[in-house]
UniProtKB/TrEMBL annotation:
Keyword Signal: no
Basic residues: compositionally biased ranges: 1-10
Keywords, sorted A to Z: Membrane, Transmembrane, Transmembrane helix
InterPro entries, per the entry: AB_hydrolase_fold
SUPFAM superfamilies cross-referenced by the UniProt entry: alpha/beta-Hydrolases
Residue spans crossing the bilayer: 101-119, 131-151, 195-212, 255-276, 288-309, 330-347, 367-386, 398-420, 440-464, 509-531, 551-573
Protein name (Swiss-Prot/TrEMBL): Integral membrane protein
Superkingdom classification of source: Bacteria
Positions of region (Disordered): 1-34
Keyword Cell inner membrane: no
Length: 779
């Protein structure tokens, strides 16, 4: 942090990651109390978290670090009233310069990675769980092939094959002149050489994805977790020692997906050349080479699929070993095949002319059909898992994962189709010089207006429901403040905040509607693409003409919406990374997606928790061992999820000496419903049993946080009663000015926060006399 002062004695050093921390003499008095604060999605500064303009970095770096007030950082400091406070600042893991907004272009990869973690909980169904993970990994592999195929469609088909091969189009775009096959066509004017040159673009895209995956792994996810023995029975997979370190799997998937991308480019270049060589009277040598090349491409593709199918995550211990021969050999072998394909395609072939489209329709149709089959199989497996252990709170009754996987496929298809359509419009204009992109991609772009109409109708329905709920809340608010003069504007504001906060709980309905719409429109696009080539007569022809006219209008509108959406997407992403207020708007969705490790797609944006969770675990373990003091882990919003994940990673002996204080907490409301296998009721009940004590604060005006609903009747309730928001309805002696409606922010302003923290500290050390807590309202 720029505003934070550096520690005067340099960086704090810790033990090597592969060894457990040593227990040394205490740094402070044995009864030192510590509160470790973890902020939420919006990000903040250590000065705001600690309420002091002078802060010192205790340990960490410029990406994530632990800070204290300067007055609390000295070695001779003795505890005063309340615990010593430390702030773990991790916002630089998910924000930074505006170039990170380009990660938003990897949204389909992030979404399909989410589907891996959304499986229903099912104890003892190990084979079914592995099958679920395998199906998601295969869906992710098709997304890589789809993205690279879309780039091939733009570079190879639209630019090199169609536009450069048409004299009028090449004249309109002078930068394509050296590729034009005119009377004085140059060396590059041969169709195969044009394709070989254009193949550099999708090849560079594949290389860029490989580089980003490798670089972000080294920067974000390569931090070693705390070494400890696995527990005999895990209530949640998040307590396993290797959960936050999946180096081997990510490296294997990166090799397989990189090879798949390179092989997709090779197939796009080789297919037209092989078709030309297979014609009657073609050169026998090139025909034989084409057959051998086809066999090599099929063998390499089967190897890549086999690598994806072979192995999933290993979480019982950190997966530090790499399959070096596979990680290096598979992409290099695919690259060698691609180079051989480029040489083969660039060979001289007299009489070869480019015309029409490249054979892309069958490829995109096969990809779309494969994705549909895989998603249906995934839904069957998810239903079987959910039936074994039904959870009424689970989103979409266990079908959340398949629904999200389908949306990832739809995003990939719409992005590929929309970009191809926009590039075709830019190259061709209104002159109808080019055949354009494959029919299926055009039909996919035409579904965008229909999806937007459905979303607008859904938003209107949810808005009406929120308005009705707000009217009901106004009567309830008037009864909550008897004897106070009513302020209609104040009542409406509070009621509106409560009503809008409930929209989060309607997310399953929104996802179900969006999934059903995607499924229907995807089937319609595939049917329309297959039926486009028919030529009916008479009345049928007139009806068909009307349908084609509507489809053409939708395609044009969808194409422009894709272009506008792309610009809006990047602009909004840049603003979200730089502006805290914009980040709070979309930050929760993005941070949920990048919280999870890359288990299905290696090109997804990096997982910040693979750095943040080990940071918190190491800090808590070393501090409790060295001081023997009491520690309250205090997490807000997404910070409460990181706090829970870090508490799970502690050894049982340390976990039992830590209290957990969460506020604005989405553990059950979002994570428990959508990720039941990892944050479901059994997992939260296990965490409640393992930590020394746990208290959760929430407000009815909070759209993100809520109760955790731990199903444990043998211990004190985790959830505090809903906090009052605002703290005062009208002007009072304590609040002479109108109290703000805080919603999801500033929980520490409520007196209940200090009171509950003191109670947690007292419960951590019941054998010592604690400060008597102040009586709360009604006590």
């Amino acid at each position: 942090m720029d505003s934070a002062q550096r520690h005067p004695h340099g960086q704090h050093t810790t033990e090597p990651a592969h060894q457990p921390p040593e227990t040394g003499p205490p740094d402070h008095e044995p009864d030192t109390d510590l509160e470790l604060l973890v902020h939420g999605v919006g990000g903040t500064t250590p000065e705001k978290m600690l309420g002091d303009p002078r802060t010192v970095r205790i340990t960490g770096d410029d990406t994530a670090a632990v800070f204290r007030r300067a007055a609390d950082a000295g070695p001779g400091r003795r505890p005063g009233p309340g615990p010593v406070r430390e702030a773990y600042v991790w916002c630089n893991l998910t924000s930074g310069d505006g170039s990170r907004a380009l990660w938003l272009l990897l949204l389909p990869f992030m979404v399909v990675n989410l589907a891996h973690w959304m499986r229903p909980a099912a104890a003892g169904r190990h084979r079914t769980v592995r099958l679920y993970g395998l199906l998601v990994r295969l869906v992710a592999l098709t997304l890589t092939a789809l993205l690279v195929a879309g780039a091939c469609e733009v570079a190879l088909d639209l630019v090199a094959w169609q536009c450069a091969g048409a004299e009028r189009c090449a004249r309109r775009h002078t930068w394509l002149g050296f590729l034009a096959p005119g009377v004085h066509g140059g060396w590059w004017s041969a169709p195969g050489r044009r394709l070989a040159l254009a193949a550099l673009i999708p090849t560079a895209l594949t290389g860029l994805l490989w580089y980003l995956s490798h670089r972000t792994w080294s920067a974000y996810e390569s931090h070693q977790p705390l070494t400890r023995d696995p527990e005999p029975a895990d209530d949640s997979a998040l307590s396993r020692p290797g959960f936050w370190y999946g180096r081997r799997l990510v490296a294997r998937l990166r090799a397989a997906h990189t090879a798949t991308g390179l092989l997709t480019v090779a197939a796009a270049v080789a297919t037209p050349a092989i078709r030309f060589d297979h014609r009657p009277g073609g050169p026998p040598a090139l025909d034989t080479l084409g057959r051998l090349l086809t066999a090599g491409l099929l063998l390499a593709a089967g190897t890549a699929v086999g690598v994806v199918c072979r192995r999933g995550r290993s979480e019982r211990c950190p997966d530090r070993h790499l399959d070096a021969h596979l990680v290096r050999g598979l992409p290099l072998g695919a690259l060698a095949l691609l180079l051989l394909t480029l040489v083969y395609a660039g060979w001289s072939r007299p009489g070869w002319r480019s015309g029409g489209r490249l054979p892309g329709d069958p490829a995109f149709g096969a990809l779309m059909s494969a994705q549909g089959v895989l998603v249906i199989a995934l839904a069957v497996v998810a239903l079987d898992l959910h039936r074994r252990r039904p959870d009424p709170r689970a989103g979409m009754r266990g079908l959340g994962g398949p629904a999200v996987a389908l949306l990832a496929c739809a995003l990939g298809g719409v992005m590929s189709g929309g970009v191809a359509q926009r590039v075709a419009d830019w190259l061709d204009g209104t002159r109808a010089l080019l055949p354009g992109p494959p029919v299926l991609l055009t039909w996919q772009a035409s579904t965008i207006p229909a999806v937007l109409v459905v979303l607008l109708l859904l938003a209107a329905r949810l808005g009406l429901r929120a308005a009705r709920l707000a009217r009901a809340e106004r009567a309830r608010i008037r009864h909550e403040h008897p004897g106070e003069p009513e302020d209609p504007a104040r009542t409406r504001a509070i009621a509106h905040a409560r009503a809008m906060a409930t929209l989060t709980d309607r997310a399953p309905l929104a996802l179900a509607v969006l999934t059903a719409t995607t499924l229907v429109l995807g089937a319609a696009a595939l049917t329309g693409a297959l039926a486009t080539g028919t030529t009916p007569d008479g009345a049928a022809a007139r009806a068909d003409g009307v349908v084609r006219g509507l489809a053409g209008t939708s395609q044009a509108v969808g194409s422009w919406l894709i272009g506008a959406g792309f610009l809006l997407f990047v602009t909004w992403g840049r603003r979200a990374y730089k502006d805290a207020s914009a980040r709070r708007t979309i930050g929760i969705l993005w941070d949920v997606g990048t919280f999870w490790p890359r288990a299905a797609h290696p090109f997804a944006p990096p997982c910040y928790a693979e750095r943040a969770v080990p940071d918190l675990t190491w800090r808590m373990d070393t501090w409790t061992r060295r001081t023997g003091g009491r520690l309250v882990l205090s997490g807000h919003s997404q910070g409460s999820v990181l706090a829970a994940a870090a508490a799970w990673q502690l050894a049982p002996s340390v976990r039992g000496r830590v209290a957990l204080l969460t506020y604005g907490c989405p553990l059950e409301r979002l994570y428990g419903r959508w990720f039941p296998a990892h944050f479901g009721p059994p997992a939260l009940a296990g965490l409640h049993r393992d930590v020394a004590c746990w208290r959760n604060l929430y407000r009815p005006t909070d759209p993100i946080g809520g109760p955790v609903r731990v199903p444990d009747d043998t211990a004190p309730d985790v959830d505090h009663e809903p906090l009052r928001d605002p703290l005062a309805y009208g002007r009072t002696a304590a609040h002479p000015l109108p109290a703000p409606i805080l919603g999801h922010s500033d929980y520490q302003a409520d007196p209940a926060f200090t009171r509950e923290r003191a109670r947690l500290l007292a419960r951590l050390r019941p054998d010592l006399p604690g400060q008597r807590p102040e009586p709360g309202p009604g006590e």
